[in-house]
Design brief:
The protein is mainly alpha-helical and 59 residues long. The chain has three helices and no strands. Keywords: Metal-binding, Zinc, Zinc-finger.
């Protein structure tokens, strides 16, 4: 599985660094910083779609 492969890589390369946050011991796919920022983007996007702005009502 992917998780066992990742664990194997981390155990053989303890100095592995995340491309997203630049911290060590994890990869971008498992980055909590990246996941949090993606959740914020999703929330903001959903709010923009569900709430029409005052400018769009004038048209």
């Amino acid at each position: 599985t992917k998780s066992s492969t990742i664990k194997k890589v981390l155990s053989t390369h303890p100095d592995i660094q995340c491309y997203y946050c630049k911290k060590k011991n994890h990869i971008a796919r498992n980055c909590s910083v990246k996941q949090k920022s993606q959740q914020m983007i999703t929330k903001l996007t959903e709010n923009d779609i569900s709430e029409p702005s005052a400018d769009s009502e004038k048209e």
